[in-house]
Structures are given as structure tokens and as C-alpha cells.
Amino acid sequence: MKNNIRSVSLKQTKCDDKFWSPYQKLVVDTVIPYQQKILNDEIPGAEKSHAIANFRIAAGMEQGEFYGMVFQDSDVAKWLEAVAYSLWVHPDPELEKYADEVIDIVAKAQQEDGYLDTYFTIKEPEHRWKNLLEGHELYCMGHMMEAACGYYEVTGKKKILEVAEKMTDCIASVFDEEHYGIPGHEEVEVGLMRLYEVTGDEKYSRLASYFIESRGKRKDFFHEEKDNRDFDIFNMDPDYLEYNQSHAPVREQTSAEGHAVRAVYLYRAMANLAAATQDESLKQACERLMDSILQKKMYLTGAIGSSGEWEAFSKDYDLPPDRAYAETCAQIGLVFFAKAMLDMEPKGKYADVMERCIYNSTISGMQLDGRHFFYVNPLETNPGLSGEVFGMKHVLPERPGWYACACCPPNLARMILSIGKYCWNESEDTIYAHLMIGQRAELAHADIAVESGYPWKGEARYTLTPKTEEPFALAIHVPGYVSADTLKITVNGEAAEYQMKDGYAYILRKWNEGDVAEMNFPMEIRRMYGTVRCIDTAGCVGLMRGPIVYCIEGVDNGPQLQALILPRESSISEHWETEGVLAGTVTLSMEGLREEDSDELYSTAAPEKKPVKIRAVPYYIWGNRGLGQMRVWIRE
Amino acid sequence: MKNNIRSVSLKQTKCDDKFWSPYQKLVVDTVIPYQQKILNDEIPGAEKSHAIANFRIAAGMEQGEFYGMVFQDSDVAKWLEAVAYSLWVHPDPELEKYADEVIDIVAKAQQEDGYLDTYFTIKEPEHRWKNLLEGHELYCMGHMMEAACGYYEVTGKKKILEVAEKMTDCIASVFDEEHYGIPGHEEVEVGLMRLYEVTGDEKYSRLASYFIESRGKRKDFFHEEKDNRDFDIFNMDPDYLEYNQSHAPVREQTSAEGHAVRAVYLYRAMANLAAATQDESLKQACERLMDSILQKKMYLTGAIGSSGEWEAFSKDYDLPPDRAYAETCAQIGLVFFAKAMLDMEPKGKYADVMERCIYNSTISGMQLDGRHFFYVNPLETNPGLSGEVFGMKHVLPERPGWYACACCPPNLARMILSIGKYCWNESEDTIYAHLMIGQRAELAHADIAVESGYPWKGEARYTLTPKTEEPFALAIHVPGYVSADTLKITVNGEAAEYQMKDGYAYILRKWNEGDVAEMNFPMEIRRMYGTVRCIDTAGCVGLMRGPIVYCIEGVDNGPQLQALILPRESSISEHWETEGVLAGTVTLSMEGLREEDSDELYSTAAPEKKPVKIRAVPYYIWGNRGLGQMRVWIRE
Fold this sequence. Notes:
homodimer, alpha+beta, seven-stranded antiparallel sheet, 34% helix, ten-stranded antiparallel sheet
């Protein structure tokens, strides 16, 4: 493997996009301030967080008890990371000042030896590192590393980075070949690879490598650990090894298993490490795991982790729409994993899955008010059953406010604010443009202004200011659903010469100041079918247009969405919405049939069908117009 | 309510039926001896029962500890009841001798004051009656009452009846208006009503009435009980009142709720009591609860209790085929409840639901070898998912051997052996023939020999030997699916005059020795559709022929049954099978379509359809030809 591909830092991009800029504004204006208040317990009626207070107590700045989940610290870390990106998107001296204060508290909460975890520091200092299965110390520290890198990148301030560095020294002093240990929830591997990315110091990638390669090497570890400790936190089963991907050495894993968030965090770190170390066999393991997800374990919306138990991957093709777990964080993690794969090799399928997730099952996690969030992103909800009956208790038909376990909202905030960095890679001779997101990017070969009508229009326009006289390629990702014969690629208005390879259109030329490359393709509505191996999609059709998955909702279509049928021959028309919640989206309407209701539980009379108009709306926006049924898969 | 309807005892009937006699033989030859060995721990490899040993220990006949579930005694009681009926079906002096020995042990295990429960006697005598929520004392005693009545009826021996009578004195000495108590699992109410039926002594119906009427009257009872005791058995939630139907006084209940077996046992006893006391309002409560089941909570197979959690009824129309609980015992209880309703009022819908259950979701609980049993009777199984993934862990795709919680096998044994008594009621002027089961019946108005081709042929022939000169009606239940214009009823070969009322054809006349009444109707294959309110049946068709529900199995139809489609216009042909496991049944074959498999998880190409032959077999016989998929609901 020869890998000359470089990732791009957030500061090389400035988002200016009709779709994403409003989301970024929502995060900046609402989500981050709201989360700040939550972390400080300033929202009346919301579940108590106490996360900042925990740090203050650990710092000796106030008296009190630890409160919250064992991983409560990570809420602060993820918020801090989101704040970092927020300060880039929208500089805000007051917010930065407050973030600096929080960092001061965090730094004070750090122990002499670099240890940083308020739960164990306040509550059980004697149990430090004694319950890696459940303790989440390395998880929280990993998030703090990510926050540190983000904050340092954006502000140039080193204090939190120094905290992170000191923390890793502490970790490195505890774990080594002689002193085996792996975290029950992966994340520190990601944090360490971020530290490596930002500092270039190989001690971080080496420590990441230690944790990655150790996983699955000692299958009895968590069991022994449990035998050797006299306390539990969650009373997790130490023998459910798939849960935390410790059932086999990572290079031998071929199927995505266990807790979906844990899995994709691990896979991302594996890919980061493979890229950093040019490790072909590790890269292949990543490819196998990604293929396992893409080919057998992913919902149409890009959601993963279909099992309602353990927030986990289920068996291949077991993708129940109404019992999905499909945690927002898992999809965000899949975006990260896909980008890490692109950092090694530009393949359209990775950019495609990023698209699938960012436009569907990640942002579906957030109400348009920025104050209500889904943890679980089902593809079907039936009020009265969802959230209530066996098998569906975890599936809520409406987004609640804040969770005690508040991992998803700040995760979403950081993804949305840093979306620009997922758009690019560069190599010695090529700029890879993965996503059609309007922005200004300052890359090595050129500055590029992107204008895009995506996801509603199949058009992106790249205006280049090259920084080199040498020819280089602009390789534009062509979404996988675009057929070659409808694709138009021009440079300065003329049909361009380009080569298609692995889903990218390579336009290789000497670029001049102001050259404009443009990609256009028609946005056709696509009827999507699941493989017959998937029992849950049998007989149904899903609708997509561009990267957007559609759903039908009760508010538009009346009760009993299961009674609606979309005949294969029905034509579907699209509408640019200008009013209400749906303003700025394309909705679909079509002639369908509705089976009529009957009092008889079973009858020899097939339900009569009446023609009806069916309206479908973008999936990501579902549940913003009151409580009702929702379905992605429509009977055909 | 004026109720002159009498029930018929088992000893008035002698089954001689092509369908049921082989089942009775299987129970007599295999199930009962097998269960006898199980109860005595004589089957190597089977889960330990220890049920007889518990009685011996409680009787002071041997030393040892109690072993098994808290309700282990009921296994002996149900076996004893099955033995009683077995002795009627097939007299067996050796078996009777052994049963007498067991009864001797049971009698010795009974305490001075009449108390009879080996768990509490051996293990926790100080906790007697202190945990009615979980203790199952009254449940076990109720079953012993049923066994006693059955054994006394068949053999005329009084010993076990005296045990039961002494037991009820004990119960009556503990519970009264001043000393409130209701059992967490209903059954004693049934046992007491059986004692009333057999002895005519109203003290039993009064005690049954006490338990029935007390239920739901003190909603804090189980909670208080838990507060006042310092031991738990299952750690049940005392506030889940619906679970044991104590959420409201029984007369106020309108919806079937909670644990399905508990529910139908209660409803049966309510109906028995309403019949005995001519209580119109209690009868109406029973009617409402039955309608709740029939109209909103029952599978096509007659199965009930669809929730995989708590073995309970779910919300209305929540009838998932692949996550069904549908416990064999629940369906048996529904047969009992339906018969109890017929004992009050002959309505076709009650006979119809008896048919639906006895020919489908009860006997599906037993392998044709009489040695493997289902607790759970799903309408769809998918090996690899069933029994393995979240929401389906309770659904086994193959019948295992014996369960530690072995309630279903002996319950099925007693239903099959006593099937004759479910066929009849009599009133002053009418004989009601509910089921088309070949037999000789000695009724008050006449002796009747029934010959029947049911369930495969729509024919039943009643040859009468009247015992009265007075005219009386033979009211033959016409299955609800038979259309009036295809129904033929003759007497001595001539078209008979009859009146249809509530699903019964009343032939009123003076009957002469040797008169033959005959009912004939064509057995048409019926396509069944669920109401669109039921999400799980949408787009699918079920097949029935007569009372038999059909299913498709992998062994006949290859993999991925979800890929099979039965077009509405396909004609279906039937086959009388003569070989193998299916011999003696009618199977169905039809032209269908199979969607082709694809590696792509999602595709814009709808799966191609190829014509295939589909074979459907009777549901009750599924899983007798190896492990494979099974589906009742076929895509249409």
C-alpha cells in the first residue's frame, strides 16, 4: 500500500451551503448554548447533567458528589469539541472565553500524574483502571483528546492539548505489553490518532496501535478483570466479547459485530492507523468490516446497529424498520469510519455512505428546533406500539428533550460543524472532492470555491485558484446512483475530458485561475428495493431522490400507513416546498391506493382499494409536525 | 338470563374419529408414559423434574430437598387429570394402579389442615399464603381440584376428591371477606367450579365467586403483600396489575389484558360462575372479554398472547407473526373459555374459536412423536433469527424436549383426551353439537353416533337413538365459514327442515330410532386477509381450508419464504397425502412467484419474479420435517 493521501483540516474549509449552513447556524445559535446550559444544569425541567460540576468538584473548586453516568465527562469533551468547530464557523469571543474557563476547570481536575476522569477521581479513586470493561475512563479521555485537538486546531491555544498530552503519558505509564488492558468502549484509539494527526508525534500512534492490536488477543481479560474486582457499574457480561469487538484480533475480524458505536469507533481508528502506518493487512481488515456493514448490516438511511438489544449489530440482513436501534452516534461514527477509509483510498462507496448518513440517519436525530433529539432512528413508527410494546420499547415516536445519557446531541453538533473536512482529500497530484457541499476550501494545490444545489439539485460548481503550475486532477465524486449517460462534467462550460475510476471523475489538466469545473446530473426519483434476503423489506419500496431517503407520515397521509400501496407504475412528482417546516425541501407526491379499513379481524374479503394521493417527505425531517405514524418502506 | 343448558361429562362420550383418535392414541401410548417417566426423573438427558419426589418428601416418605419451579406440583396434577381421561379413552389397570399410588402419595403430602403444596411444605412452611402474587399455591391446588374431579368422574374413586375437598376447607378457612386474598395466577377458580360441577355443592361456587369477585377490588393488595414479606420468588412487579387481571373488578373489564393463560383461566371461571348463578352481568363481562380476543387479539391460528414479554396480550391488533408468544396453554385455555361460554349460550362464534384452536394452535404445540413440545407457537420462523435475535429469543424454530416449566404438554394431553366433552351441550329441548368429531355420545335426549370426515371433509353424520317420544331439536353447529347456499342438511337422506340461528342449524322433530341427520358442505380453500389495522398482515394472505390454517415451509419451498408471492388470481389445488409425515392430511399447491435473490443490499432494480410452485401444509404439523423457515402469512 502506497498512501500519499492527505486529510484536510477543518480550518482549510469554510462552509457556505444552502443545506448545511442553516444546520450550522442552528447548532451555533441553539444547540451549543442549549447544551452549555444543560451541562450547567440551567434548563429547568431537563434531566440533571452535573457534568461541569463534576469537573469543578474533581478540581477541588467546590464540594459535592459525582452525579451522572460513569461517562458523564464525555459530554463536556464532546461539547468542547463542538465549541471548537463552532468558533471556526462563527467566531464568538464570549463563547471562547467560557470554553477557556471550562478548560481551566478540566485542567485543574486533572490529577498530578495526568489521570483525568471525574467519576473515579471523586467517587472511587481506589478503583482507577480496575474496571476497563465498564469504567469508560479511556473513553472519556479519548473524547477529551479529540476536543483538545479540535480546540488547538481552531484557536491555537495549547492548554487543553497539554492536558491531553499529559493524560496520554499517564495512560502510557499504565498499559504496555507487560500490563495488558483494553477499554470496554473504544474511543481512546480515535483520540490518540487525532493527537498523532495534530502533533505528528508517533508516540500517540504507537499507543493507539497498542490498544487496537491488543483487542481480542486475550479473550479472558474482561472475565479475569471482573473476577479480580469487587465492584460493578453496569454489571455487564464480561463474556459477551462481540459486544466490544474483543472476540478476535481486529485483523481477523470479518463481520461487523456488537455495539455499533463501539464498533465503528474502533474501525475508524483502525483505518486511521492503517493510513498512518501504510499497513495493508490492517487496511484490508477495515475493508472487510466496511463491506460487512454496506452489504449486510445497514438500513436504507445509512443507519446501523439494528438490534434493540445492546445497541448492537444484529445478524446479516436483520433490519427491522420498526424495532431498529440505529443510534444517531452509530451513524455519525460510520461517517467518521468512511472518511478514514477515504483517507487511505478514494472509493466512491465510502463517499456514498457518508452521503447516505449525513443526509438521512444522522440529522434525523435532531428536531428542527435544535432542542429535541433521537437516540434511536427507526424506519417505521406506529404510535401506540412504538415505545410501548415488547420489542419496540426503545423506539420513540417523538424526539424527547435531553437524555441522561446524552451522547448523541453533542456528537451531532460536532459532525455538523466540521462537515467541511469530510469533503476533501489531497494527494500529490489530485484533489478529491467527496461531497457536494458549498464552501471555500484552501487546499494545497488550489483554493476552491464550491457552489452546490445539493442535495436537492444534482449540480456542483468548483471555481479554482490553483497554487501550482503543474497539472493536477480534480477528482469529483459522482454519487453512486448517477448513471454515466446522464452525467455532465464541464470545465469552463465546455464538456470536460475526464476519467471515471472507482466513483470519481478525474479531470486532469493544468488549471488556471478562475477555471470552473462543473458537475451536473438529473435528480431522478429512485424506487429502492431491499434484497429478498432481508425479510423486513419484502414487498416494499423505498423512495430516494439524490441522497435523500423519503418517508411517509401520518400527518400527510392519514392513519394506517400500512394500508397504503404505491403501485410500481405510479408516476411520482416532486415539489419544491416554500412554506412551513418543509420549506426548502423537495417533497414527493404520487397516486397510490389505500386498502379500506374493516372491523373484522380476519376476512375472506380482501380489503378494497381506493385511489389516494400519497405524499412523501425527506426522512431526516420526520417527526417535526406532531405525533403520527411514519414509514420508509411503502407497500408496493 | 335463563339458562337451561347442561354440559356433558366426558363419560357420556367415546371418541372414534379419524383425526382425534390417533392423537388420543399418541397421548395414551406415548405422551402420558413419557410424562410419567419425566415426573419420576427416568428420562436420561431430560431436564430434572423431581415433581413426584417433591410429593414423597412432603409426605415424609423420603428425605430430600424441594426441587423445581414453585408450581412444580401442578405437573403432577395435570398429568393425573390426563391419566383420568386416558383411563376413560383406554382403560389400563396398570396405569390406574400407578395413579392410585401417586394419589396415595399426594394424600400423604397433604397437611393436617388440608394444605397441599410441596414447595411451601418442604421449603418455606413459615411463608404459606404470604406470597400469593408469586407462590402459586392456589394455582397448584386448583389443578389438583381439576385432577380430582376428572379422576373421580372416570374411576368413581373418592380418595383424591376427598383430598381436594379437604384442601378447599383449608382455603376457605384462610380467605374471606375479612381476610382478603387473590391468587397471582388464576386457576383455583376453575378448580372450584369443577368441584361444584361434580359435587353440586355450592360452597365451592361460593368460594370461586369470592376469588373472582375479589379480583381487582383492592388494587394495593399485591403491593402491600410485597411490603409485608421478606422473601421473593420471581421478584415480580406487584404493580403490574393487568398481568394478573387485577387492574379492575372483573365485571368492569372490557379488554383482554395481561398474561394470556391467567386471563383465559379467569374468564373461563367467570363464565362457569355466571352459568351456575345465572348472572347476566357477569355473562356480559365474559362476552366483552371474548369479543376483545376475537376481534382484536387473536392470531389466525386461534393463538393468543402475542407479546414476547410477560407471555401476555399486547395492544389491539399487535399480532407479530415472528415474535408471537402464543403459548400452547393459552390456546387451550381459550378452548376452555369458549366451551364455558357455550355452556351458557349456543353461539356459533364460540364453537368456531374452539375449532380454530383445537385444529391449529393447540396441537401445533406437540411434535408428532409426542415427545417434543412448543411452548411458543409463532406464525413465522426464520432459523438464524428465531430464537437468536432481539425480540425473537423466545421463538424456537424447532420443538425441544421437555421444559423445566412443563405446563403445556400435560395441558395438551388433557385437552386431547377430553375432546369429546367439548362437542356437546343439552337443554330441555335441544341437543347442541358443536364440533364435528366422530364418537358415540350418550346424551339425555338420545344416544348419538357421529361419523365425520372433518377437518378434511365437510361432512358429519349423526345417527340417533332417541330416549324420548317428545320432539327435540338437534342443533348442529355450522362452521362460520360455510355459506348458506352450499350447506346441505338432510334427515334420512331427505332435505331437512331446519332453522338457522346464531350459527346453529336447528332440526326440530320427533326423532325415531336410527334416524340419520347429515350435514354436508364443500370444503373450499379460503384466502384470508387481516384487517388493515393489523400492521403485520398487511399485503399478505393466509390460507385456510375448513378449520385448518395452512403454512408454507422451507422443506417444500426452498429458502427465503419471504421471496414467495401468491398472486390473487392463482388457483389452488388440494392433495390428499398418503405418505410420510403428512399422510392423512390435505396439502395445497399453487402457482406462485419467487423474487430472485440478489447480493445487493439495496437496488433500484426490483427483484425479478419467476414462476414457482408453492406448497402449503397444515400449520399444526409444521416443524415435523426438520429445521427450516415457516410462514403462515404469504405475500400476495
